[in-house]
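Page 42, continued from yesterday. The earlier attempt failed because a stray header line got pasted into the input along with the sequence. Redoing it now with the clean sequence only.
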Amino acid sequence: MTTLAVTVFVLVYVGMALGRVPGLAIDRTGVALLGLIVLLASEDLTLDEAGAAVDMPTIALLFALMILSAQFEQSGFYGWVANRVVHAAKNPKTLLAVLIAVTGALAAVFTNDVVVFALTPLVAAGLMSQKLDPRPYLIGLAGAANAGSAATLIGNPQNILIGQAGGLDFWSYFVLALPPTLACLVITFLAILATWRLAPADGTVANGVPEPQIDRFQMAKGLGAVVLLIGLFLTPLPRELSALAVAGLLLMSRRLSSHTMIGAVDWQLLLLFVCLFGVTAAFAKTGLSQEGLAFLASHGLLPDRLSVLAPLTLAASNTIGNVPTVILIIQLIPDLSDGVLTALALLSTFAGNLLLTGSLCNIIVAERAAKAGTRLSFADFARSGIPMTLASMIVTVAWLWATGLVPL
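This time it went through. C-alpha cells are written below.
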C-alpha cells in the first residue's frame, strides 16, 4: 500500500536523522533494517525487487576496499603511522599540520571511516602520553579524513556510490576534485588554529603506550596491492572488479587468516546501504517521487544548480547523514549530469564537517576517542566544524562555478 511505503520511508529517514529509536537500543542500521522488513512483510516490496534495487557494484567495491584496509591494519601500518605522526614534532602547529596532511592522504585511498576507526585510539593515546589536549587534534583527524576523502571516488561511501551510479571516470574526477580538497585541508588547519589554543608538549612521555608491532612483509604486500589497484584503475576493467581481484589476492595468505580479514569488514555499513536501497525503491514505486520532482522542476528547485545543491547537501548531510542523502538523491533523480554528480560528491563530503553528527566518520572519532579516555563533545566539534565547513563550501562552490561544471 502507498500509505505504508510512504510512512516507512519517512520513519526510516527520521531515524537516520535521530541516529536511533528513542527508548530502544537501535542504531541507524537497525532502523533501516526494520523498515525493509516491514516493507517485505507487507509485500509492498518483494525480495526480487529489493535485490534488484541494491547497487551491487558499489557494495562489492566497498567490501574490497575494506579488505585492503584490513591488510594494513593487520600489518601494524596504522599504529606505525600514528606513532610517527604524534612524535613527528614538538611544535603543536607542525604536529597538527602533519596529522591533517597524513590523514587526508590516507582517507583518499582507504576510505575515511576505516582510517579514523584505526587511527583515533592510537592518536588519542599518543597525545595523552605527551600530556597534550587531544580534542583539537581529533577534530583535525575527523576534518582531514572527510576533506581528504573527497579527492577520489573511493575515499568515502557516498563517493563510491556516486562514482558507480554515474559511471564517473576515476582520474577525471580526481583532477577536478584535488584543488578544492587541498584547499579544504588547509581550511581545516586554519579553522582549528583560530578556535583552539594549542599548548606545546611538556617534554615528558607517560608510560603505558606500547611501541607498534610492525610486520614489514604484510605492509609491503599491502603497498603492492595499492600500486596494483591504482594500475588497474588505468585500465577499462570496472573498478569493482579491479578491487575484488586485489582483495582476492590479499586473502590468499599463509599468515593472515581469511576469517580475520573478512571479520574486519564493516558489515553494519554494508547492511545499511542494502536496506536504504530497498526502502528508497519502495517509495519510488508509489509514484510520489516523480510527482514531487515535477513540482520542483516547475519551480526551478531541482538540485542541478549550485544555489540549490549546496544548501540541500549542507542541511541534509547534517540531519539524515551524507550517505542516506546521496542514496536518496541518486535513486530519485537518476539522470543527473556528470558535473552535478561531481558537485554532489564534493559538497556532501565537505558538509559532513559541520557538526559531530554530520558524518559517520565524525561519530566514529568521538566514540573511539571516548573509549581511549577522551571526551569530544558536540560543542567541541562545532566550534571548529562550523567555520571550517562554511569556508570549505564557499570555496568549493566558487571552484565548481569557475570550472563551468555546474550552473549557479
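Notes: Residues 158 and 323 are 5 Å apart (CA to CA).
Reminder to self: strip header lines before submitting.
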